[in-house]
Amino acid sequence: MSSDPYIFTTDALPSDIRFLPPLANGLLGWRVYNNIMHMGGVYNGEGGHCHRADVPCPLDVKLETEEPVQHTYSLNTHTGIFTHTLSSASVTASQSLYSHRYHSNLMVMEVLLVRQVTSEQPITVNLVTSFTPQSKDIVFQSGPDYKGGSHILGQTKTAEFQGGSCPTVHLIWSPIPPSLTLLPEQSQARWGFILVVANSLESAKASFDQGLSLMATGNLRPSHEKAWKELWLQSKVEVTGSENLCKALIGCMFYLLSAFPSIHDTSSSFGGVSPGGLSNGGDGQDYWGHVFWDQDIWMYPGIALFYPKLARAVLEYRVGTIDGAKDNAEKQGYKGLKFPWESAVSGREVCPEDIYGQQEIHINGDVTLAFQHYFYLTEDLSMFKEGRGSDVIYGVADYWVSRVTWHPEDQKYHLLGVMPPDEYYRNVSNSVYTNTVAKFSLQFAVEVADLLQHPAPKEWKEVAEHIKIPFDEESQYHPEYDGYVKGHPVKQADTVLLGYPLGLEMSPEVRRNDLEAYEPVTDPHGPAMTWGMFAIGWLELEEAEKAQRLLEKCFNNIQGPFQVWSESSDGSGAVNFLTGMGGFLQAVLFGYTGFRVQKDCLVFSPLLPNDISELCIRGVNYLGSQMDWLLRKDEVCIILREQSGTAGHTKPHNLQVVLKASGTKIPLRPGQPVTFPRESGCVCKLDSTLDSSCWPF
């Protein structure tokens, strides 16, 4: 077995094929050995029937030989390549599969045969497939062959909404023979097969030409590997002390990155991230491939910390759904924008059950929180001006103002008839999470309006200041909603999210009371992302071992040799559950480090549990600069990287570290390590005068 934690190796595939590794690149997604795949933004079905359209996959091929062989299967996350190796006395055959990381319309299969003994005999391996050029979602017809490639094209059967368009899909692929033979005079031979999936014939032909040209120059695999290498150079999260944790973090980062576009992609055609990623989401499975708050609250923060360009792609996806969000608000009888609980391409509500779209309105604040997080990390105002981010922020603020009800008894604004993140309850009033996220998105709207010199309606500030945030004075904790009975069961992390990621100000005592009230009543079979949020809470209170016990619960959701997550710990629910991976990653990235992205600074407050001796986080991207962090039990080391021009839309600022207890200020200079004893502090601009609001608690 491989000792490299980035290579997941096994001699037997998982018995449950759902846990075979997904190979994706932000546009195309496929689970190995599956005869269907998916393309981002290609859905079939109207409204609540909308789901990712099944696209047939010609690369559904298994290698077989006549003689007995030893099998090895490995997923190399350094390179995003899955390899099946068959070793016998006479030959070693290996089949490699990958979704090209740079050329996103391209998927590849390579076969290599190497003779093990000198012999005059030809050696043959069989290529066994269950591929048929058909789909229940797309009506395909044959097109003329192109440069030796087979070609089919078709349109999805039903548009997402009445009057909407049905996307077209073209596939061109190298025909795959039933067998491959190593001739007597050959000691080894290699074959390459490419598949192109695109929305137009022009784009399909261009991508197929590109694939042929890369094969001819021997650059097909190197260009893919180079793109993965570049991604990993911009983000690494590694721990010393727990092999399991190290591997889990690598798996989370790999599968999350696979769901995002290339950092070189300029097409702006990114279709968002669904809970099971691109490899899943067909009719009736893995949430139909829809985009939920999972993207903005659970997956996004861990990616945004390293990759401003990928963070921006998420925001651009939401901007692209503004018209649908406007339509949703109008249908509900409110002003502004109402982002759908379940989103596909148009932004119109595609949730199969109306109540979620009607009541789980916290999605609006979840979306704007991602914009706020991005702005505080990058100060990229272009996203809000030319990028139309301000339309999202203002539209959500207008929605909240029209959605609240004034209650003269307590002189507060109320949000009535909502479903909190804890979906065991519906039609409740004043969900504490929903009201808090509404308050913060209204405050951010005022801030953005101020920056862009846009006259902000006085109601934004008025509602933000006077919206009710439920609090039980007697028990000194936040009830989940008006009338919540302490001790009643909870589906998932809800009120505990007030501390992180929302950052609602509260005393350590109240934070502890919230954690202690909800932890014992949270469904042990609930979704996987929950325990990471409790862990972050306990780390804030400096209870690292308690946090660690909760984080270890997540290991039950990691299935089989390829580190693929299931939504529930018994293996049920959504597969390749990126939401759970995102929550887990945040527990390390924002828990162990204490990172908090705030208006004028990046706060840190490091704390490692006993069994972790070292945490290394490389590539943290803040205000246009990249930093590498090394956390040990009793010291912290930060290195500001030399500028490489990958900062995106942000001109780098000079940065300094300010330590909280001593007030010591240490300038960060490129390439010069800064080491100090472990304590809380923040990173901010060198010319910054810090106000005390930068510190948590």
TrEMBL record:
<feature type="domain" description="Glycoside hydrolase family 65 central catalytic">
    <location>
        <begin position="264"/>
        <end position="486"/>
    </location>
</feature>
<dbReference type="Pfam" id="PF03632">
    <property type="entry name" value="Glyco_hydro_65m"/>
</dbReference>
<keyword id="KW-0326">Glycosidase</keyword>
<protein>
    <recommendedName>
        <fullName>Protein-glucosylgalactosylhydroxylysine glucosidase</fullName>
        <ecNumber>3.2.1.107</ecNumber>
    </recommendedName>
</protein>
<dbReference type="InterPro" id="IPR012341">
    <property type="entry name" value="6hp_glycosidase-like_sf"/>
</dbReference>
<dbReference type="InterPro" id="IPR005195">
    <property type="entry name" value="Glyco_hydro_65_M"/>
</dbReference>
<dbReference type="GO" id="GO:0005829">
    <property type="term" value="C:cytosol"/>
</dbReference>
<keyword id="KW-0378">Hydrolase</keyword>
<comment type="similarity">
    <text>Belongs to the glycosyl hydrolase 65 family.</text>
</comment>
<dbReference type="GO" id="GO:0005975">
    <property type="term" value="P:carbohydrate metabolic process"/>
</dbReference>
<comment type="function">
    <text>Catalyzes the hydrolysis of glucose from the disaccharide unit linked to hydroxylysine residues of collagen and collagen-like proteins.</text>
</comment>
<dbReference type="GO" id="GO:0047402">
    <property type="term" value="F:protein-glucosylgalactosylhydroxylysine glucosidase activity"/>
</dbReference>
<dbReference type="InterPro" id="IPR008928">
    <property type="entry name" value="6-hairpin_glycosidase_sf"/>
</dbReference>
